[in-house]
Amino acid sequence: MREEAHEILFSPRLNKGTAFTEAERELLGLTGLFPDAVEDCATQQERALVQLAHRANNLERYIYLSELQDRNERLFYQLLRADPARHMPIVYTPTVGEACQKFGHIMRRPKGLYVSLRHRGRIADILRNWPEADVRMICVTDGERILGLGDLGVCGMGIPVGKLALYTAVGGVHPARCMPVVLDAGTGNEAFLGDRLYPGLRQPRVRGEEYDAFVEEFVMAVQQVYPRCCIQFEDFHNTTAIPLLARYRDRVCCFNDDIQGTAAVAVAGLFAACRALGNTLVDHRYLFFGAGSAATGIADLVVQAMRAQGVSDADARSRIWLMNSKGLVVRDNPGIQPHQREFVREGRLEPTLLDAVKAVKPTVLVGTSTQPATFTREVVEAMRVHCRRPVIFPYSNPTSKAECTAEQAWTWTDGEAIFAAGSPFAPVSLNGRVLIPGQGNNVYIYPAVGLAVIATEASRVTDEMFLKAAEGLARRTSDAELTVGLIYPPIDRIHQSAVEVAVEVAELIFERGLARVERPADIGAWIRSKVYDPSY
Q1: Distance separating alpha carbons of residues 13 and 3, to the nearest angstrom
Q2: Bridge-based pairing state of the strands 428-430 and 364-367
Q3: Is 485 left (phi over 0), alpha (psi -120 to 50) or beta?
Q4: What is the DSSP string of 199-245?
Q5: H or E, element range at 294
Q6: What integer is the mean pLDDT of 10-16?
């Protein structure tokens, strides 16, 4: 085999498989290395779908798509973009959770960059081992809080791999500009430490000054090796995620998707819910079940959104209640964490969610607890005592961690609830209507923000950008879609929606003077010209 042909066949970015024309096969020395037929994209996709259908379950389909990405990258992205509703739950949540849990056992060809504690002092050199010289988006995790599944160590690599695949499929970010990274600081998962197939560093997770120095070296090495790169922090533990964002958000171009992306998609859902109800954010009382970084991130952005509507900070915060493992976050709650302090309220320490709902009388209930089946019939019916159409957002994922299902929320409210979840649920038939649940997935937000940040070479990522993205996303759900339960655009429009939202975020970046490129005359056309096209 000629050297050029070998390079093409085994490069997922160059390989087109049976789509190479006869002329290309002759020119590149590929004649005879494929069957005679020259196939178009549609035929290749059809074959891939047949092979997917033969897989026994979604984990096997995840493995198949991962291997397809390894051998024909463009065909992989064609499939994702052609039918995101079908393939996103396989490539990302909920299937990615199971894939991470079993990563050490199903791993074929390792993806991403693994930066270990053993690499301290030479992390910049490790970054240079990556085959792409112009990385613009790094999604990095330390694996300590993967979805709602806990510490999975380096097996959490499936999260940044999946996130960045959706940057490309949804946001149109070129895959060559993306790098998934795991920071291997050890793991607290005893089962993994005792598993001979666990592929990471076999030691307890380090913390404190040693951990902080490790992350600092990584962040500074990125500035050195990839000076135009944005860092997305992903699935760090609450006690780590919040300090990391505070430490770096004003120093480098970075954001935390669990905090800011989750906040934006939730606020977008609230904007859309207000459209369906004919009111505004100020007209609601909010109860967050689960008071981690995701909850406080959403609450902070809700406060910013209400301030933009003319409400004082104190008045906005007076509408928000948090609930942690000890009960309502009030002054005598013994489990108050530093990031919860700005939302401490006066009142009784209600210990159960049902008690809290009766006391607070929320019109909006948001679940970020990873405690399944906690939005019970009694809880939902207690909301309806004072609110005919409650807003119910069980955002915990994967599906096994959801606080309630779409069918439960709508059955218990006679179809009146405004519902969205963090994981996908099937449509619900009720009283002659078919209601379609929306998925409050960050994928509606972060690819759009990422595309805008990469295109403008933004020097920083701000909360205002996420609020702008939330406003833009909420406008893209039609009135007709709201009437059937959807509060987010249908998933089959997600690519179009992401590009449109990216245009709005890019306009804001230029307005705030954060861009490091010259402002084009037509920002919309300019953004669209940068969208990756996976077709041949």
Answers
A1: 16
A2: unpaired
A3: left
A4: -S--SPPP-HHHHHHHHHHHHHHHHHH-TT-EEEE-S--HHHHHHHH
A5: helix 293-308
A6: 94
Indicate yes or no: pTM above 0.90: yes
User: Which candidate in 16, 111, 163, 401 is catalytic?
Assistant: 163
**β-bridge mates for residue 140, sequence order:** 181, 233
Tell me the pLDDT tens digit for each residue of 165-203: 999 999 999 999 999 999 999 999 999 999 999 999 999
Rounded CA-CA distance 486/500 in Å is 19
Q: Are 438 and 419 in contact (CB under 8 A)?
A: yes
SS3 category, 365: strand
Whole-number Å distance between alpha carbons of 396 and 79: 27
Highest CATH level, class, for 95-252: alpha beta
95-252 and 260-443 share one CATH topology? yes
Q: Which is the catalytic residue, given 77, 92, 114, 248?
A: 92
* Domain chopping of the chain, boundaries: 1-39, 95-252, 260-443
Of the candidates 225, 205, 218, 202, which has an alpha carbon nearest to the alpha carbon of residue 120?
218
Residue 535 has pLDDT above 80, yes or no: yes
Active-site annotation holds for 92: yes
Tokens representing residue 341 in the block = 């302090």
CATH number of 260-443: 3.40.50.720
111 is catalytic: no
State the average pLDDT for the chain.
Answer: 96
> What are the pLDDT digits (tens) for 96-150?
999 999 999 998 888 999 999 999 999 999 999 999 999 999 999 999 999 889 9
Residue 288: the pLDDT is 98
Residue 210 has pLDDT above 70, yes or no: yes
Helix 84-91 to helix 158-169 angle, to the nearest 10 degrees? Answer: 160
**Average pLDDT score over residue span 444-473:** 98
User: What angle in degrees, to the nearest 10, is found between the helix axes of 73-82 and 41-53?
Assistant: 80
